[in-house]
Amino acid sequence: MMKRPLVFGLCLFWALVTLFPLYWTFVTSLKPPTAVNGGPTYIPYVDFMPTLQAYIDAFSGIRGDFINPFINSALIAVSATALSVTFGTMAAYALVRFEFRIRLGSGLIFAAVAIGGFLLFNETFGFSRAQAMGLAFLAALPACLIANRLPLPGPVLGNKDVLFWFVSQRMFPPIVTAFALFLLYSEIGKEGFKLLDSYLGMVLCYTAFSIPIVVWLMRDFLATLPVEIEEAALVDDVPRMRIFFEIVVPMARPGLIATSLITLAFIWNEFLFSLLLTTSNWQTLPILLAGQNSYRGDEWWAISVAAMFGIAPMIVVAMLLAKLMRSGLTLGGIR
Q1: How far apart are CA 197 and CA 170, in angstroms?
Q2: Nearest to 69 by CA among 227, 230, 279, 263
Q3: Per-residue confidence (pLDDT) for residue 198, from 0 to 100
């Protein structure tokens, strides 16, 4: 019986440690400059008189443009989350319900045709780099698919290997991927199709960046769903795509919501890709927050307002979806 008060006390202590930075940021955003520079103050109306002047200054543009980065972050995060969860869930479902046999030799053929095709089209035929990359990919993909049907020597990779390949995409240092994307977007931009500092470029980047996480999370969720319902639908000659959208997706809703919220949080807080791939038009909130300290000095009341712009939306979303998220996070652990 003595363990319960001890556990409750430890949880309460950890809750205070976790929530105090949020409280301090919010309280600081309500402080006038004198309350910030005059020493520590903790409680509104007791230690200081709160004011909304810092919020008024933020909306008026004195501390920079807050509205456009906020809208940019919202549009990019919601769009990329929707796309990554959609395609990632499809890929996870395929890994759960179908057996894949991928010959390692076909992957080597893909690499050889892609690299050789790029050099051939670029160096020999004089195509631009972007055009050569596109043509090389169009040549390598069918060559890989045809080769996979042949009895090539070497190991045959299965579903677990495919899953590991998805997860391994997140093992690379982000700067490597971000720099490669910058070079790719620059080459595509030379063809008149702008991806740097654009909505489409950021959405495509974050979608590719988030799909491995979605596949990893949703695979466990989908594996817990009863396959008998899908088999009964197949007996009635229901198309597989209809089974996925009308049977599997509704049953996996808690997992989808939990995965969507985790993915949204990753995209909302991501800094490096936005720093390298945007300049002004489509900069997101993390870039704005990073520049606050150097914009007009250590005006902590204004910096706290900028931080609240970034924190508040995720808190609201988490509170609205807390129940479904809890059930979704525990679903994958039930077998």
Answers
A1: 23
A2: 279
A3: 93
Among 245, 242, 248, which residue's Cα sits nearest to residue 227? 248
Q: Which of 307, 296, 218 is nearest to 269 (CA)?
A: 307
Q: Is 157 helix (H, G, I), strand (E, B) or coil?
A: strand
Domains of the chain: 39-100+158-331 (1.10.3720.10), 101-157 (no CATH)
| pLDDT top residue among 147 and 297 | 147
Give the ranges where 149-284 is alpha helix by DSSP (H).
Answer: 159-168, 174-189, 199-223, 227-235, 240-243, 249-251, 253-269, 272-277
Strand partners of residue 44: 48
Q: For residue 335, what pLDDT is reported? A: 43
Residue 293 — pLDDT band, cuts 50, 70, 90? low
286 CB-near residues (< 8 Å, 6+ apart):
73, 269, 270, 271, 274, 310
pLDDT in tens, 78-112: 999 999 999 999 999 999 999 999 999 999 999 99
Each residue of 250-267: b (16+ CB within 10 Å) or e?
Answer: ebbebbbbbbbbbbbebb
Residue 19 CB partners (closer than 8 Å, separation 6+) = none
Q: What are phi and psi of 156, to 5 degrees?
A: -110, 125
Contact, 191 vs 128, CB < 8 A?
A: yes
Any idea which residue has 């920079």 for tokens?
Answer: 64
